[in-house]
Amino acid sequence: DIVMTQSPDSLAVSLGERATIKCKSSQSVLYSPNNKSYLAWYQQKPGQPPKLLIHWASTRESGVPDRFSGSGSGTDFTLTISSLQAEDVAVYYCQQYYSSPPKTFGQGTRVEI
Amino acid sequence: EVQLVQSGPEVKKPGKSLKISCKASGYNFNKYWIGWVRQMPGKGLEWMGIIYPDDSDTKLSPSFQGRVTISVDRSISTAYLQWSSLQATDTAIYYCARHLREDSWDDAFHIWGQGTMVTVSS
């Protein structure tokens, strides 16, 4: 199985400041023929199902605020919230969807104010 | 509106069987992979498996093989997750979720159900 490791496990950021979450995969999730990294980011607020924010490592879903951005390729990825808002308090997960099952999630990163 | 609506909470005793459901609407059910994700109390997300409704092709995580069965009923656009013998460690929220792109098994989960809480306790 591909192991996804996020860092940090939690972070506290002031309103309006930048939040940065890292995700590292135990092997590359870059598919060379299409040059796409099979990496997604999700946001989960308390009592709610996860919400897809970003796929292909950097493609923002429709309706997701542009303060959320994804970057990286291969094995190292970053989710950045450029200016943290109160409604961004949540747990964030990365997921690789490159390999044969399971398509593993990271352990999650809790973002607080 | 594309949505997945899951069945309600369940409380079961160890050793009992259970089947929970996920009803899809607003899109061509047969053409999108749909899967299940477990979230144990206070824990993270675990990918369990996916199924392609058109031909019932199923891909299960080795961690869940032999423990659960994923199936669909195309006539009512509904996916199922079932256990033949529950254990206390099956206590969790179970989410169904649909892939982002049509006919794509290597994909992210785009549309999520609201979750079904399953409690297994004697």
Mean of residue pLDDT values of chain B: 97
Largest sheet of chain A: 6 strands, mixed
Main beta-sheet annotation of chain B = 7 strands, mixed
Largest interface: A-B, 25 and 25 residues
What is the helical fraction of chain A, as a range of percent?
under 10%
Strand pairing plus helix content of chain A: what structural class?
Answer: mainly beta
Strands of the widest sheet of chain A, in order across it, are: 2-12-11-6-7-8
Unreliable stretches of chain B (pLDDT < 50, length at least 5) are: none
Radius of gyration of chain B: 14 Å
Segments of chain A where pLDDT lies below 50 for 5+ residues?
A: none
Helices and strands of chain A, in order, run as EEEEEEEEEEEE
Q: Which structural class matches the secondary elements of chain B?
A: mainly beta
Extended strand count of chain A:
12
The end-to-end span of chain B amounts to 40 Å
**What portion of residues of chain B is helical?**
under 10%
Order of helices and strands of chain B: EEEEEEEEEEE
How does the overall form of chain B come out from the CA principal axes?
Answer: globular
The tally of beta strands of chain B, per DSSP, is 11
N-to-C span of chain A: 34 Å
The number of helical runs of chain B is 0
Q: Give the integer mean of the pLDDT values of chain A.
A: 96
